[in-house]
Amino acid sequence: MRIATWNVNSIRSRIERVEDWLKRADLDVLAIQETKAREDQFPYLTFEALGYEVAHVGVNQWNGVAIASRVGLTDIEIGFDGMPGWGEPIASEARAIGATVGGIRVWSLYIPNGRNIDDPHMVYKLDWLARLRDAAAGWLEKDPSAEIALMGDWNIAPFDEDVWSMDFYVDKSHVSPGERAAFQGVVDAGFQDLVRPYAPGPGTYTYWDYQQLRFPKKQGMRIDFVLGSPALATRVEHAEIVREERKGKTPSDHAPVLVELAG
122-148 pLDDT, tens per residue? Predict the structure, then answer.
């Protein structure tokens, strides 16, 4: 079974790239972030023609998450228990969707950016991650044998090797002690990085800003992850960051992250 996550940075702008990669990668499940589309704008027919069912939530031109599966798609859940909203009045954002696919509980997650260290959005981001940690810990407490994948754009580089320059990022978001502690909180809840053992750093990035020629300069960040429950981790046979998909015409600024599972 082959599962992957990809922040596509607008599904309507990137649908041809996604369609092409789905065909070549022979994927069973794709978790998608930043669809930037309302429900009526999502290209469901393209996925259906390829044999995929899709669960999507999107409310405007921002955020948006989806799961595409050719191995079943049941028990769809938009948002997790306790997931906070943003703004005044507080509103729900399209940042999390879960579904059971081929026996695995998959969550497509788009963690808030945080913007900068002192921004109110950083408080929101840390609260969001704390609520995710609590929810995820509850899922494992309820069923320690559950196969769960938390997949998506975490907007956190957990280690210094996950950014091209700590000097550049030292006073910026994504690498702050609070953000890294929040990421580690999910790990401590029982979830492990399924990809790093197969794609160790430094230099194994998943995101390269469009500006300043970051990609050809190899100036990226590792912020996209697949965190798996203990039962799911035992099934991993291979994993990789598909860097080649950051190349070519109209790419996303993120590369897909792929995990191959036994069975």
Answer: 999 999 999 999 999 999 999 999 999
Spatial distance between the Cα atoms of 247 and 236, rounded to a whole number of angstroms: 27
Q: Which two tokens stand for residue 48?
A: 């259906």
Domain harbouring 75, CATH code: 3.60.10.10
H or E stretch covering 50 = none
Which residue range forms the structural domain that includes residue 178?
2-261
Task: Identify which of 82, 91, 196, 57 has the alpha carbon closest to the alpha carbon of residue 136.
Answer: 82
Number of DSSP helices (H) and strands (E) in the chain, helices first: 6, 12
The per-residue DSSP string of 70-126 comes to: SS--EEEEES-TT---BTTTTB--S-EEEEEETTEEEEEEE-----STTSHHHHHHH
CA distances to 39, 45, 57, 63, 228 from 35, in Å? 10, 15, 9, 6, 23
Q: For residue 59, is pLDDT > 90?
A: no
Q: Using alpha carbons only, what angle is made at residue 121 by residues 115 and 125, rounded to the nearest 5 degrees?
A: 95
**Cα gap 126→184, rounded to integer Å:** 12
Instruction: State how far the Cα of 232 lies from the Cα of 96, in Å rounded to an integer.
Output: 20
Give me the number of domains the chain comprises.
1
Distance CA(73)–CA(52), nearest Å, equals 9
Is the Cα dihedral 52, 192, 206, 200 positive or negative? negative
